[in-house]
Write a structure and sequence with these properties.
- By secondary structure, the chain is mainly beta.
- The chain has three helices and 18 strands.
- A hairpin with a 3-residue loop joins strand 11 and strand 12.
Length: 276
């Protein structure tokens, strides 16, 4: 069966004046002439994306859409009418997002993270920015330490909300993120914690490294406390001096004070570091 909203590998069955009809052996779909490769023959196989045209008929294309069935993407609004918003999905036809599927009212030329699904009643491809309904509530196939794919969904004062492997909700705390991230960004992260209620904390740093840095940070903060908030070590300190005082390498020292500085726990000067 030819899948709508996805890529299909189909065989060229016959040519007509308007294009070639492709088949999977059971169903046919038209590939218009403008998308036909120059060197192609009856019986050849071709990979095409199938969607519904303006008259809601299946149509094939060799264009690459910005979004696929049951996936997320950041799309721009082309226009809005009394029915809803129409988003640029990289094809001749826009993706329709009805008002009932808008988390907030969509405006022309703005971009929104949406999910594309096949409406069971109309059999049409529809978009939605109400993303939670498409995410699993229980993290069944991830564990602490796993490397995962993340999509930034929205940013709050608490942290950066992400979609994990296009399946689960996750959160990166704002004081642990030291880069400029925006909605729709796709990044790599790591599962930091899975709470009893199923909520997931994620990090941009591999957990083993992060745990090591946390331990070293405690060493430096403890040493600062013992010395009334000042430690006469800095970037130009001799490695042996750092090792003698803190029992860590100069490289580990620099990485750790860099993280402490970003978290606004210390102030770095030419003479050393001060605890804030």
């Amino acid at each position: 069966m030819i899948a709508i909203g996805q890529y299909n590998t189909l065989k060229i069955d016959r040519r007509t004046s308007v294009g070639a009809f492709l088949t999977d052996g059971k169903e046919d779909v038209l590939l218009p002439n403008k998308y036909l490769p120059e060197q192609i023959n009856i019986g050849d196989e071709i990979e095409v994306f199938v969607y519904l045209d303006q008259e809601e008929r299946p149509i094939a294309t060799t264009l690459h859409p910005h979004i696929y069935l049951n996936e997320f993407a950041l799309l721009r609004v082309n226009f809005v009418n009394h029915l809803g918003a129409f988003l640029d999905m990289g094809l001749e036809k826009d993706l329709f997002v009805p008002f009932r599927e808008q988390a907030r009212k969509m405006d022309v030329n703005k971009r929104y993270l949406v999910y594309m699904y096949l409406d069971e009643k109309t059999k049409r491809l529809v978009g939605s920015s109400k993303l939670n309904q498409f995410l699993n509530k229980e993290p069944l196939d991830v564990k602490v330490g796993d490397e995962v794919d993340l999509i930034v969904s929205h940013i709050t004062e608490l942290g950066i909300n992400v979609i994990i492997n296009e399946k689960f909700k996750g959160l990166m705390y704002v004081n642990e993120v030291f880069e400029d991230l925006r909605t729709g960004d796709r990044i790599i992260g790591f599962i930091k914690n899975i709470r009893p209620d199923g909520k997931i904390d994620v990090s941009r740093t591999p957990i083993k490294f992060e745990q090591k840095v946390d331990r070293l940070a405690e060493v430096i903060l403890d040493e600062l406390d013992r010395n009334k908030g000042f430690l006469g070590l800095h970037d130009k300190s001799h490695p042996e001096e750092i090792r003698a005082i803190l029992n860590m390498s100069k490289k580990s020292f620099k990485v750790t004070i860099g993280n402490l500085f970003k978290e606004k726990l210390i102030r770095i000067t030419e003479n050393g570091i001060y605890k804030i």
